[in-house]
Amino acid sequence: MRAEFARAFRLHEQGKLREAFLRYDAILKAVPNHAAALHYSGVVLYQSGKLVPAVERIRASIAIDPGIGEVWSNLAIALKDLGHDEAALNGFREAARRSPGDTKILANLAGSLLAAGHHPEAEATARQLLALDSSHVAGWSILSLALQPQGRMLEALDAASRAAGLAPERDQHAVLKAQIELGIGAHDKARQTLEKALARHPMSAVLRFELAGLLEFRLAESEAAAAAYEQVLRIEPQHGAALSQLTFLRARLADWRDRDSLVKRYRAGVAAELPALSPFALLSLPSTRAEQRQCAQTWIKPMMGPRAVPSNRALSSGRLRIGYLSADFHSHATAFLAAGMFEQHDRGRFEVIAYSTGRNDNSPMRARVMRAFDRFVDLAGHSPAMIADVIRRDAVDILIDLKGHTEGAMPLVLALRPAPIQVHYLGYPGTLGSGLVDYLIGDSIVTPPTHAGDYAETLAVIPGSYQVNDRERPIGATPSRDSLGLPATGFVFCSFNQTYKNNPQVFDAWVAILKAVPDSVLWLLARTDADPAIANLRREAQALGIAPERLVFARHRPNSDYLALYRHADLFLDSWPYNAHTTASDALWAGCPVLTVLGTTFAGRVGASLLTAVGLPELVCVDTNAYIAAAIRLAGDHDEVARLKQYLAGPGRSSPLFDTIATTRAIEAVYEGMAAQYRQGVRRSFRVEPVPKSPD
Question: Residues 448, 602: contact at Cβ < 8 Å?
Answer without folding.
Answer: no
